[in-house]
Amino acid sequence: MKMLTFDLVLLVVSVAVTISAATKIGVTYSTPDVQEVSPERIVAKVVSMEIEAVRLLDPDPEMIRAFASTKVSLFLSVPNPLVPMLASDRHQAFDWVKLHVLPFHNRTKISMISVGNDLISPEAPPPMFLLQAMQNLRKSLLQLRINDIPVSTTFSFFSLIASPFPPSLAQFKNPNRFLEKTNSSFLVNLFLTTYMDDTSTIHVRYTNLFDVMVDAVVKSLAVMGHESLPVVVAETGWPTWSSNSSEVDATLRCSEKFLDSLVAHLRAGHGTPLRKEGVSEVYIFELCDSGSKQQSKRTWGLLDNHLKTKMNITFFVDIPEMEKKFIRTYLVIVFSLFAGVIGTVCVLTCLTNILSTERPPKPVVGRDKWL
């Protein structure tokens, strides 16, 4: 009976862990040179698509304000040109936080801040100002009593991995102790448009290139002694169009197929061979085209720059309604069984105690009362 009860407890816990461990899937958004759509319309579109997170690559206070009182979490990025200034002047970092974070902290879900995007070059050592800017921004947050927003920076996969394939040979060129000390995540951009076919030395079976690249990051973190750092894929995607005629796979059809496969893989919750829980968050590049075809060499958007849908995006629903009903019913049954077992154990315990209690002997007439 005790073993059955314990098994039920494990079953309930495993179901809860399975539900809560799903990878958060979001999108990136860049403000176009000419803003044709209001922030309120963009937020309304994001909410209608049931997207749970948005990375603002060049955050604007009006856009951050528009997300107030929604369930969408925001991942803010400090544009690269501002990073040296935030590093050299602590007051500039403080002012950036006062403008982009402090007014919205209680009403808008700001999940993290990235200081710069792909500032590391494989040909040169990491710039000294990068870590200083991260520290200044972190200190500014704490000075304003905001201690629940981690600060990190975003790396490019191909700028950091010395030998991307196989992943067991990959090593990062720049350790990031700051991330571990401040409980931050390791942010990396993964774009799968570079083909790698040297699989002869791989002893772990991979079914897709995304997992190969994630495990290259995981292995490199382990080599540096930071294997416990959560990994966030800050950008990934597939172009829907390219001005280069040789990029024959840059089509709407290929992009939709890639996103369908990626989201299904992430929602399945299988993780990767080296990290069973998988990555904690993935951001798809990008929500809408940031410019016209005449202005851009590639387009990546799920929507065009007028918010018109370019592909099927219903896969952004976190858990389908039928699955939610199944999970609710399943949990009710499990908890009912659990309560029934507990009740049965209590009744049997009471009966056992009653039956095992010694009763006093009946008095005998003419003798002492309790002989």
Automatic annotation (TrEMBL):
What EC class does the entry list? hydrolase
> What InterPro entries does this protein map onto?
GH (IPR017853), Glyco_hydro_17 (IPR000490), Glyco_hydro_17_plant (IPR044965)
Where, by residue number, does the polypeptide cross the bilayer?
330-355
- Leader sequence segment: 1-22
Q: Return the Pfam families for the record.
A: Glyco_hydro_17 (PF00332)
Enzymatic reactions: Hydrolysis of (1->3)-beta-D-glucosidic linkages in (1->3)-beta-D-glucans
- Keywords carried by this UniProt record: Glycosidase, Hydrolase, Membrane, Signal, Transmembrane, Transmembrane helix
| Gene Ontology MF, one | glucan endo-1,3-beta-D-glucosidase activity
Which protein family is named in the record?
Belongs to the glycosyl hydrolase 17 family.
State the name under which the record lists this protein.
glucan endo-1,3-beta-D-glucosidase
